[in-house]
Amino acid sequence: MKGLSWFAWLAMAVLAAFSVGTIALHRGETINAMWLVVAAVSVFTIAYRFYGRFIAVHALGIDPSRATPAWRRNDGLDYVPTEKSVVFGHHFAAIAGAGPLVGPVLAAQMGYLPGTLWILVGVVLAGAVQDMMVLFFSTRRDGRSLGEMIRAEMGPAAGVISMIGILMIMVILLAVLALVVVKALAESPWGTFTVAMTIPIAILMGLYLRHFRPGRILEVSVMGFALLLLAIWVGGMVAADPVWGDIFHLKGTTLAWLMIGYGFVASVLPVWFLLAPRDYLSTFLKIGTVLMLALAIIVAMPELQMPAMTRFIDGTGPVFSGKLFPFLFITIACGSVSGFHALIASGTTPKMISSEAHIPMIGYGAMLMEAFVAIMALIAACVLEPGVYFAMNAPAALIGTTAESAAAAISSWGFVLTPEVLIATAKDIGETTILSRTGGAPTLAVGMAQILHGLIPGQGMMAFWYHYAILFEALFILTTIDAGTRVARFMIQELLGMAYAPLARTDSWAANITCTLLAVSGWGWFLYQGVVDPLGGINTLWPLFGIANQMLAGLALVFCCVVMVKMKREKYLWIPLLPTAWLLVCTLTAGWQKLFDPNPKIGFIANARRFGDAAARGEVLAPAKSIEEMQRVVFNNYIDAGLTALFVSVVIAIVFFGLRAAFAARSSSAPTTRESEHVALESIPR
Amino acid sequence: MSRLNPSRADAGRSMAALLGRDWRSGFSLLVRWWRSARLLSARLWRTGSQTARLAIGIPDYDNYADHIRRHHPGREPMDRDAFFHERMQARYGKGRSRCC
């Protein structure tokens, strides 16, 4: 990149402006996906070279002569000075999850334009800035975690509050991800079989690595991958078989209970048995699939069928309710800006960076790559016929349960659709129906299957690719559930341990089981509620998750602002302040609307009242079937409202502590930040 | 790194020499080019596998053992298997908060 002359950069800028302009102003029937790819690549390249470098060099003042924690505390294990490209790969693999694949798919209900613009602008000004700043601050503090840094710079109360916030996000994240899997597997014997098979495959890999050939990751991964492909192939036969097909044909509620049981058992098993081998598989599969998707899009150059903007920007959309502002900005969280990355950027990565000069590439660059993944997910959702997209993502309460009723409802929204198309699509992908397969994963899978099928055609290949994509998402999510339950358990132990010390003992089986149970029942409760939710669950839970994730980002960015003030670099405060302000506005507005909006489709309290009042009159409102169910809807809505209120108050509390710390720092004439001491890189023996 | 790059000029020159009379020096150029190409691909493979292993939480073992021998002469480094299990436990023991 050093070699590019000013002329080349100018040409790049013209290309970026032209492609973004084309996307924004194009009003034809369809637009080629390449425009999105070109716009993203050119915008990201320019942003990295100019904004990213500017922040690193001027605002943060990276100092390549300063020894990083990897040098000062080198132990060959956690702290290891590592080559830039290797750390980049490690960091990207750690931040890349299922989120950037789901959010943009849901946001596609407003058309491709709003989502694309938010991903492009959001990542450049907010997401990548947050990741890089947190990475830098953690590198300057011996690789401390976000929680520890908040405690040190903003006080112990802020530390505890952020910890509660992080725990709540964990719970809601696990519930939403589990719901995505349940929605994808319900009534789908093929999908259920292949995903169930990942458990014995991972155990086999674990045993192989433990007892047969320790450390041979390449061969065990290749073996696992081959078995996965075999499972997909066998799954097709299982689904076609009347007896076996029946066994794996499960209802949503059954799957939810299985999931809860799985979460509990898997998270108390030793890690080598199931968690680690499965994480190997899902990490490699994710990277491989993302590369394959990128290649497929570039080679196939599909046309986007979705309009630039649909009429659902007014807030009446079937996928999630609420207007473009603020709900688009919390629906696409990962991909534009994700609070979770702040946890990763203050985790293992800062302990491996060998020079501060690598921070822009790893902090800013890896996040740009993640945004590119989000753009690809958006493309995959938008290559579908809009009618098919809405049939898959609208809840049964709106479109009914037959192809005829769905086609009629969706046509009435202005998207031409015949029942035959729905039936044919379902048949192509080897399923009985595609109606109301909410949660993003199935839509992404059909989109991916369509793109890949364009490249490698063949009888039955559509069905194979669809189930491959479902498997890939589910594999990933199951690993997250297992690992996330453990994280939540340790957090609960730490928090409850403050009140009752024996619970903090991580070696005690009683404390272990109790806190795991608490963690599982936390997310399990929301999962079950989501599965029985008449609006399909995602409609209710995704906004909650989005608010939580953006709240965490807001928290991390407030911390960045505070540190900038403490470093006496107020001149550059606008860099973190701009995204902080935007995120606070979005989360607080969304939180407020979720609580108090008079429209029962948006406001939790309004919805609870609507059902409560009807129940008091003795009426039963659809889709509830009895007064008990009515009461349950009321209760659930109050719980959701309570959780939203909790998120909002965490944000407000952190802003308060941030302001307090910042004003205290301003009254001091010297920098008050708590960095580890400066050691020259040259003085370290190599 | 650049030293290892098989240069196009080398390849071109060796082709030209092979086609012409001076096949001996052309051949040796070709051998040199082939060697450096092999070195480069070995290096790429090494970086790639290091990245892949680190992506699942396992740093370079040789580097670790080297570090212990040089900086902690009294200590014996763990063997490969113990190192592998220690790293696995360190990565997953407390769960992993991966991004959404």
Task: Explain the layout of strands and helices.
The complex is a heterodimer of chains A (686) and B (100).
Chain A: H1 6-25, E1 31-32, H2 33-60, H3 69-72, H4 84-95, H5 99-107, H6 112-139, H7 146-154, H8 156-185, H9 189-212, H10 217-240, H11 242-247, H12 252-268, H13 275-300, E2 303-304, H14 324-331, H15 339-345, H16 359-382, H17 386-393, H18 396-399, H19 403-412, H20 419-428, H21 441-455, H22 461-499, H23 509-532, H24 538-566, H25 574-596, H26 604-616, H27 627-666
Chain B: H1 8-19, H2 23-55, H3 61-71, H4 80-92
Task: Write up what this structure looks like.
The complex is a heterodimer of chains A (686) and B (100). Chain A has 686 residues and is mostly helical. Chain A has a single domain (6-187, 250-666), classed as Up-down Bundle (Amino acid/polyamine transporter I), CATH 1.20.1740. Helices cover 72% and strands 1% of the residues of chain A. Chain A is globular. Chain B is mainly alpha-helical and 100 residues long. Chain B has two domains: 1-55, no CATH class; 57-93, no CATH class. In chain B, 69% of the residues lie in helices and 0% in strands. Chain B contains four helices and no strands. The model of chain B has no long low-confidence stretch (mean pLDDT 82). The chains are: A mainly alpha (686), B mainly alpha (100). At the A-B interface, helix 4, helix 8, helix 13, helix 15 and helix 22 of A face helix 2, helix 3 and helix 4 of B.
Largest interface: A-B, 61 and 40 residues
Task: Figure out the total of helices of chain B.
Answer: 4
Number of domains as seen in the coordinates of chain A: 1
Structural class of chain A: mainly alpha
Determine the CATH superfamily of chain A.
Amino acid/polyamine transporter I
What gap, in angstroms, lies between the N and C termini of chain B? 37 Å
Number of domains of chain B: 2
Q: What number is the mean pLDDT of chain B? A: 82
**In what order do the strands lie side by side in the largest sheet of chain A?**
1-2
Structural class of chain B: mainly alpha
Beta-strand fraction estimate of chain A: under 5%
Q: Spans of chain A of 5+ residues with little confidence (pLDDT < 50)?
A: none
Task: Please indicate the percent range of residues of chain B in DSSP E strands (runs of 2 or more).
Answer: under 5%
- Count of alpha and pi helical runs of chain A: 27
Shape of chain B: elongated
Question: What is the rounded Rg of chain B?
Answer: 22 Å
* DSSP strand tally of chain B: 0
Number of strands of chain A: 2
Largest sheet of chain B: none
Listing every helix as H and every strand as E from the N terminus to the C terminus, the arrangement of chain A reads HEHHHHHHHHHHHHEHHHHHHHHHHHHHH
Rg for CA atoms of chain A: 25 Å
